[in-house]
């Protein structure tokens, strides 16, 4: 279960991306997915105060591979951060995290059949490690 009583709160959810006539649409994963499906990992981060030097690490689910493999600096909704894609996890480095709610998303593609766990998302203030939290791991069935 996620940490309680910490200024950082984190939630993780999985969505299936489907391409329709209207364009790409996402819907929550509610059952088995198939090999080749594109999943969107959505991480919601809440903080009740301004923080500096925050590291968020999202452990990628077994049986999936990232769609975007290039590490890069990103800027969205007034927040700048560096996203680094590694073998087993995606890392997000934030120099400054203002009080508020932020949503991070990235896509993965399902590679193998089986039953997997996505792994947790951890977040920690690098110079005040007592400010930390983690999400739950999500089960994933691939047929």
Write a concise synopsis of the structure shown:
This protein has about 140 residues and is an all-beta fold. It is about 0% helix and about 60% strand.
Description:
- The chain has one domain: Immunoglobulin-like (Sandwich), CATH 2.60.40.740.
- It starts with 7 loop residues before the first strand and ends with a strand.
- Strand 1 and strand 2 form a beta hairpin.
- It has no helices and 13 strands.
- 0% of the residues lie in helices and 62% in strands.
- The chain is globular.
- The protein has a 6-stranded antiparallel beta sheet, with no helix packed on it. A 5-stranded antiparallel beta sheet has the order 2-1-3-9-5, with no helix packed on it. The protein has a two-stranded antiparallel ribbon with strand order 10-13.
- It is mainly β.
- The protein has strands spanning 8-20, 23-28, 38-47, 51-59, 64-66, 72-76, 79-85, 89-97, 100-110, 114-117, 121-125, 132-134, 139-142.
- The mean pLDDT is 93.
- This is Bacterial alpha-2-macroglobulin MG10 domain-containing protein.
- Residues 8-130 form the Bacterial alpha-2-macroglobulin MG10 domain.
């Amino acid at each position: 279960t996620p940490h309680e009583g910490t200024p950082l709160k984190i939630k993780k959810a999985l969505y299936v991306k489907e391409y329709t006539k209207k364009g790409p649409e996402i819907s929550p994963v509610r059952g088995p997915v198939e090999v080749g499906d594109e999943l969107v990992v959505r991480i919601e981060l809440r903080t009740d105060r301004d923080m500096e030097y925050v590291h968020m690490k999202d452990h990628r689910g077994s049986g999936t591979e990232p769609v975007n493999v290039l590490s890069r600096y990103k800027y969205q909704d007034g927040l700048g951060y560096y996203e680094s894609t590694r073998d087993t996890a995606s890392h997000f480095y934030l120099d400054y995290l203002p009080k508020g709610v932020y949503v991070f998303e990235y896509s993965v593609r399902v590679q193998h059949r089986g039953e997997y766990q996505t792994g947790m998302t951890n977040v920690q203030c690098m110079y005040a490690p007592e400010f930390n939290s983690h999400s739950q791991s999500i089960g994933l069935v691939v047929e």
